[in-house]
């Protein structure tokens, strides 16, 4: 299973004309750029000039560093001459880059807001003392930076500056994919993965962010379960597992720390999904023979409500959740006959009635475009179809090709493009947007057949994919941002078989 694989081409190819989505091809430019935020307090120790592609702001080690504007983190990693560094893509097309930090507080794929703390000042890499090296690029393809000082001044910030005080808006926390294999990042950036087999749930984790993997550990818990994972407001991950007889959960005792034992969470059912409200409270949806029910935290990182009906929903359905740009959760549920969805009518608030969303299918995945619009993919015997938000609501369903009756997952590349992965008994394939908020290319082979697939993002932005079969759980990861490794076991061990 999952051997003899193609590598992703370095250049994406546009799909056939019939598959183009004109309304997604370009984003309308803003009338004016919003005000910038002060990147850090300190003195300007070196200005922009021909031999210095940025501006240096010097201060003591540990001085907070802030995002100068709203955007998405595309790189959060380490480079020998630069130390720890971060790159943020902004809605106007420009990129801000921050170097020499000793601590990073955001990771690739995160959405940030102007004035949000992203790092602490350090002196890593080629540096003579603690400072922030700030660069501004006009576009992702630019090979020469622009002077940060006039760029900031045109947006209301003159260096040296004083960062704003008071609470800042919290960027959205998007739900992780649910399924029999799930993965999420701990607070320290390490990926953790869980897989449910016939003898319960198994667990493996990265030994450090972006690093190698532990051996698989057996946790017990529900056999052949569907899993969901979400972050509490205090940074602790929480895992949920359901099968036809039981529903249990377990959680980290501290951020990035050890895990509790299994605790009862409800009766049995078909599938689950979990997402974080804008105020940080986790909310869980579960399907069963009579529809969909939900349960939510009464306060962030706190106790739970009783189970409540949701007014129907597809029986024994597959469920996924996503988050709208304003922070409202949205739930999508599909079974063999019907596809429905519902959404919060207000942030942290009540829910709409279930609405028709399409006909039945095998599996679904939901993601968000770089501009925040939701995009839904669903499989049936004829392949994979998608539907996306536009100015008037939702598009019609459109065919993308791909394998029939596939298990689906999706993730975002470091620059914000959605990438979709599909697996059935015979093949694994993937496709991706040719640019942010844009049409998709064509499906390409990603491996041979299997039973389950999920994707997550490393702390440095590289996508990592986990595929399961009757033999165990494999993984495959981006070796750069356009090339892939071969499939391999985690830590040379197979993990649980998923039939």
Automatic annotation (TrEMBL):
Name recorded for this polypeptide: Peptidase M23-like protein
InterPro entries for this protein: Cell_wall_metabolism_enzyme, Dup_hybrid_motif, M23ase_b-sheet_dom, PLL-like_beta-prop, TAT_signal
Keyword Ribonucleoprotein included in the entry's annotation: no
Positions of the PLL-like beta propeller domain: 177-492
Tagged with keyword Phosphoprotein: no
Domain M23ase beta-sheet core: 51-138
Signal peptide: 1-32
CDD domains linked to this entry: M23_peptidase, PLL_lectin
Keywords in alphabetical order: Signal
PROSITE patterns (UniProt xref): TAT
């Amino acid at each position: 299973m999952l051997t003899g694989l193609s590598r992703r081409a370095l250049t994406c190819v546009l799909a056939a004309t019939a598959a183009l989505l004109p309304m997604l091809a370009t984003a309308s430019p803003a009338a004016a750029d919003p005000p910038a935020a002060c990147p850090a307090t300190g003195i300007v120790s070196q200005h922009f000039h021909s031999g210095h592609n940025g501006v240096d702001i010097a201060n003591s080690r540990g001085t907070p560093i802030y995002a100068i504007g709203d955007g998405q983190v595309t790189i959060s990693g380490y480079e020998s001459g630069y130390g720890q560094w971060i790159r943020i893509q902004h809605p106007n097309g420009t990129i801000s880059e921050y170097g020499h930090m000793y601590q990073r507080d955001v990771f690739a794929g995160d959405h940030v807001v102007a004035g949000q703390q992203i790092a602490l000042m350090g002196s890593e890499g080629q540096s003579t003392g603690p400072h922030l090296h700030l660069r501004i690029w006009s576009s992702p393809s630019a090979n020469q930076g622009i002077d940060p000082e006039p760029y900031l001044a045109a947006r209301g910030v003159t260096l040296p500056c004083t960062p704003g005080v008071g609470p800042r808006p919290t960027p959205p926390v998007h739900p992780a994919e649910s399924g029999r294999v799930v993965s999420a990042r701990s607070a320290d950036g390490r990926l953790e993965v869980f897989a449910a087999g016939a003898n319960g749930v198994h667990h493996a984790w990265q030994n450090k962010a972006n690093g190698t993997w532990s051996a698989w550990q057996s946790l017990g818990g529900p056999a052949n379960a569907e899993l969901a994972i979400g972050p509490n407001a205090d940074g602790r991950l929480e895992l949920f597992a359901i099968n036809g007889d039981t529903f249990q959960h377990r959680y980290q005792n501290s951020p990035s720390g050890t895990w509790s034992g299994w605790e009862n969470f409800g009766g049995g059912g078909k599938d689950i999904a979990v997402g974080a409200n804008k105020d940080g409270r986790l909310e869980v949806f579960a399907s069963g023979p009579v529809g969909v029910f939900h349960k939510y935290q009464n306060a962030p990182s706190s106790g739970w409500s009783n189970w409540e009906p949701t007014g129907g929903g597809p029986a024994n359905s597959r469920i996924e959740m996503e988050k709208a740009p304003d922070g409202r959760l949205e739930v999508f549920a599909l079974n063999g006959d019907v596809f429905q969805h519902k959404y919060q009518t207000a942030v942290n608030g009540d829910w709409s009635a279930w609405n028709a969303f399409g006909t039945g299918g095998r599996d679904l995945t939901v993601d968000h475009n770089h501009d925040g619009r939701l995009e839904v993919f669903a499989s049936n015997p004829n392949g994979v179809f998608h539907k996306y938000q536009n100015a008037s609501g939702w598009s019609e369903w459109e065919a993308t090709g791909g394998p029939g009756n596939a298990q689906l997952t999706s993730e975002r590349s470091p620059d914000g493009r959605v990438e979709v992965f599909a697996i059935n008994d015979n093949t694994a394939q993937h496709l991706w947007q040719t640019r942010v908020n844009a049409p998709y290319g064509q499906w390409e082979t990603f491996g041979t057949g299997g039973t389950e697939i999920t994707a997550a993002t490393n702390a440095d932005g590289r996508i990592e994919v986990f595929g399961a079969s009757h033999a165990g759980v494999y993984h495959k990861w981006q070796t750069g941002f356009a090339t892939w490794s071969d499939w391999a076991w985690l830590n040379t061990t197979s993990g649980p078989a998923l039939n």
